[in-house]
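ok posting inputs for the tetrahydrodeoxyuridine job
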Amino acid sequence: MKHTDELLQAARRARQNAYAPYSKFAVGAAVESVSGKIYSGCNVENAAYGLCNCAERTAIFTAVAAGERQFKAIAIIADTPGPCPPCGACRQVIAEFKIPLITMGNLNGDCQTVSLAEILPYGFTADELEKT
Ligand code: THU
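and the output
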């Protein structure tokens, strides 16, 4: 796996493109595929607030659109007091692609890496769609 710093750095760069005129809260994310490629994303807001897309989902969807399906890790960064945690919706998307490691960071350099099981215990998965 690439060094966590590299993933956080890519997320930090992507954060500069955040389109957040409503919340003014800029977020960046970067995901590493098993092939070692990094895809990054930022949050993209909308005047119809419910359509706002988080940085993590932008990064993951960009990677999937490029043909990726398997990932090693994702990093998220924002200007938060502590490491920035992903929202519930993004945790669900992270779980969909079974991304095993989630690194949360902030602009001060605080960072913490947790596992998927830690960040989304009892998550809903495709297994639940199997009829008994
Ligand atoms: N946001 C993200 O990009 N990722 C998260 O995990 C939490 C929230 C964005 C959505 C919205 O544009 C802004 O941060 C404020 O909620």
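notes: The pocket of tetrahydrodeoxyuridine is lined by residues 20, 23, 25, 27, 43, 45, 52, 54-56, 86-87, 90 (CB under 6 Å). The first strand starts at residue 27 and ends at 33.
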